[in-house]
Amino acid sequence: MNDLEIYEEHLAKRYNASDNYHLPLSCWEFYGEHFLAKAEFRKDIESLTKLSNSWALHLDFYNELIVNKNVVVVTDPTLKIVYASHNLERMNGFLPTEVIGKTPKMFQGEQTCPSVSKKIRKAIDARQSFEESVINYRKDKSIYLCTIKGFPVLNYKGELINYVALEKAA
How far is it, in rounded angstroms, from Cα 141 to Cα 95? Predict the structure, then answer.
């Protein structure tokens, strides 16, 4: 046996006898790459859970954000955006802070179908849930097809307090 084989054999025996296993550096690189995204999702889930404390509606934010990969947009009753999940930026280029206080109409433009917009508006006015696909605009003015599941949110007294939209680029 050459010296390298003896060394490797000895190292393997010692490693196998140890309780303390070391992961290859590439594992940590993979972990680190997704750590920030997971931290952002955790912040979104915590913020949305606090926001939804007064809602008579229960949403599984973990499932919506991480499993279904939806963007969550919450508006007040006048349709001003009060919360947008961090993955909004990946979908359309806008940071959540850029959309707070504005209406979802900011995502619409020339190619947005007026009849779809009217259907959505009619459902909102009637305080009904809806699911529609609409042409929206990214920050860079490019278009994308956005599937939106929207619904009104009532508090425990039955008063309208928010609208929630679960959005995904189709």
Answer: 15
What are the DSSP calls for 12-73, one per residue? HHHHHH-S-----HHHHHHHHHHHHHHHHHHHHHHHHHHHGGGBSS---HHIIIIIS--EEE
Distance CA 76, CA 160 (A): 9
What is the rounded (10 degree) CA torsion for 71, 76, 80, 82?
Answer: -50
Three-state DSSP class for residue 153? strand
**Could you tell me the pTM of the whole model?**
0.79
- Given a contact cutoff of 8 angstroms between Cβ atoms, the answer to whether 160 and 150 are in contact is no
Closest of 165, 1, 168 to residue 83, by C-alpha: 165
Which of 94, 82, 101, 96 shows the shortest CA–CA distance to 141?
94
Instruction: Give 36-58 pLDDT, tens digit per residue.
Output: 778 889 999 999 999 999 999 99
Report d(CA 170, CA 75) in Å as an integer: 22
For the stretch 56-77, pLDDT in tens is 999 999 999 999 999 999 999 9
Classify residue 166 by its DSSP letter. Answer: E
Strand ranges across the sheet with 130-137: 81-84, 71-75, 160-169, 143-154, 130-137
